[in-house]
Structure prediction request, 204 residues.
Amino acid sequence: MHTFAQTETNYHQQENAPLKIFIKYMVSLRCKLVVMAELDKLGLFYRKVELGEVEVKGSITTEQKELLTKALLKAGLVLMDDKDAILVEKIKNVVVETIHYSEESIKVNFSDFLSEKLNLKYTYLSNLFSETTGITIEQYIIAHKIERVKELLIYDNLTLTEISYQLNYSSVAHLSNQFRKVTGLTPSFYKKLSHNKRIALEDL
Prediction:
């Protein structure tokens, strides 16, 4: 796997071979737009830009790498070359993509879904995530599900039953209890508040 930690020689690949780079804190559509804009400024051609991962066509010079690093840092994004850090970021991006941007609800156990998606045992993923972030994958998932519930309550006309189904809660009661435990409010009371504050995905 290619990373920015490699020597300049390794950046000069065959024209058709994609170079994968990994970016920390890239967890929103806004971040994707920032990354694409910076790649365009540097004249770098990309095959795809996904949450946390970019495939660049051709090669990247040392100068381009340094300029990209500085530009992304200004936007709060960090290029990564550590294997474990990259894997943790992949876990986060699967969670974010699934909860916030997937059109279909996940009707399987999230641990099985993550394991299949990343082709690694969940026990390994879970231990690495906890050691690196200080919280469990389950806590991270809950935090994002609650933020998604907030968003759906504020901007969509879905019922709690529909929201609970979409986010794979076992029942409306389960959703409500978890929401109240995290926010201190019931979903219905939260929806009535005139000043609803949501947390930026980058800060979760």
